[in-house]
Fold this sequence. Notes:
By secondary structure, the protein is of the alpha+beta class. The protein folds into 2 domains: 1-30; 31-140, C2 domain (Immunoglobulin-like, Sandwich). 18% of the residues lie in helices and 57% in strands. The chain has 1 helix and 6 strands, in the order αββββββ. Strands 1, 2, 3, 4, 5 and 6 form a 6-stranded mixed sheet that branches. Strand 3 and strand 4 form a beta hairpin. The longest helix is centred in the N-terminal third of the chain and has 26 residues, at 2-27. The termini are far apart.
Amino acid sequence: MWKIQIIKIMVSLVFVMLVGCDAHQADAVKTHNTLKILDIQPPVNVPLKTGQKIDVVVKLAYELESKAGTVTLAVLRSDGFGSKSLTSTFAIIHQGKGELVLKGEIMVPKTKFLQVRVPLVPQQRSDTSPPVEVRSYQVIE
Length: 141
């Protein structure tokens, strides 16, 4: 008798969990957003020099299914001990296809390399990871 009650309780719990998961998934919106770096200056195949002052300029193409979103340009110092942001700028974009240019000025620190990260983040909840473009620069002394 007690085995039947335990089975009933377990079935009830599984049902509640499944209904809860479906309700949670209904809030999320499936989107297909894209982001692509068309051009980056200075070119990533040219090493940067410590102490050099540069403008990182990134030309991007995007497609956004959401009503709005943000695209951020972040230049990070990466030397094996974590990352530190050297500059960050962003633009608000709207639904559809488009191109934009983001620019950030930095003084190249003493490090092994710099990383440029450009994520596109929709301004609504999504069940997919936002697209991110990444490029790296070697740094020499």
